[in-house]
Amino acid sequence: MTTLKIAKRPSLVSLVFDELERMIMDGTLKPGDPINEKALSDSNGLSRAPIREACRRLEQAGLVEIITNRGVFVRKISRRSAEELCEIKVVLARHLNVLILERITPAQLAALRLLVAKIEQQATSRNLPRYYALNEEFHHGLVDIAGNARLAEIYKAINKELNLFRWRAFREAPALEDSMSAHREIINALAANDAEAFCRVMEDHLVATNRRILTRELADDVPEPSPRRISAAR
């Protein structure tokens, strides 16, 4: 049988999904904001079908809500849901930490060290969107090093849901410095192959981040305005 040589390219649905997910993750689209299918279709020259399917995938990922006769809205995470997600992350992280220690290579450690330097550059310049993106890349990189694809998928999905709740948690300089200090300790513990120090700093960092997320959002707990229409971003 002849093997067909078909170039694999991302589908239009996947491209729309990725772009909408990026906008949700970096705060361009905030909890409660609508995702207007018609506006996106008109401004980007797309049919509504791939946009609608991308929104269904976002709903399955827990990032949007599709409300009958109203439309699609970026999901709002309740405090209780955020607490539950934080608790699950701590449990998963304990097992991931063991796998990371067993499987990390010198090349992977060097890549993480370079990434930490980039994160610190963005923190110093107060480029928060880029800081958030690199910070997530660092932690997801650690998860990937563990070498368990299914576990990594679950962990990353939880992290994305939490982003709906926590996007304001690192706006203050002390929080940024605490986070960067923890990153340096993580790298040093891995370089020294110090399992006890690595597991301790990873859990302390995660617990502190969770506490900061929940405490900050509780302080900011005010009634949200009604969902507003926004211009579709290209």
What's the N-to-C terminus distance? Answer: 43 Å
Integer count of domains: 2
Strand content: under 5%
CATH homologous superfamily assignment of the largest domain: GntR ligand-binding domain-like
Look up the CATH topology of the largest domain: Four Helix Bundle (Hemerythrin (Met), subunit A)
| Rounded Rg | 20 Å
Helix content: 55-70%
Helix/sheet category: mainly alpha
**Major beta-sheet overview:** 3 strands, antiparallel
Taken from the alpha-carbon principal axes, the silhouette is elongated
Strand order of the largest sheet: 1-3-2
H/E topology pattern: HEHHEEHHHHHH
What is the typical, i.e. mean, pLDDT? 84
Instruction: Based on the coordinates given, report the CATH architecture of the largest domain.
Output: Up-down Bundle
- The first-level CATH class of the largest domain is given as Mainly Alpha
Descriptive account of the structure:
- By secondary structure, this protein is mainly α.
- It has 2 domains: 12-74, Winged helix-like DNA-binding domain superfamily/Winged helix DNA-binding domain (Arc Repressor Mutant, subunit A, Orthogonal Bundle); 79-219, GntR ligand-binding domain-like (Four Helix Bundle (Hemerythrin (Met), subunit A), Up-down Bundle), CATH 1.20.120.530.
- The chain contains 9 helices and 3 strands; from the N terminus they run αβααββαααααα.
- The chain has helices at 12-25, 37-44, 48-60, 79-103, 106-124, 128-145, 149-166, 173-191, 195-219, and strands spanning 34-35, 64-67, 71-74.
- A 3-stranded antiparallel β-sheet has the order 1-3-2.
- A hairpin with a 3-residue loop joins strand 2 (64-67) and strand 3 (71-74).
- The longest helix is centred in the middle third of the chain and has 25 residues, at 79-103.
- It starts with 11 loop residues before the first helix and ends in a 15-residue tail after the last helix.
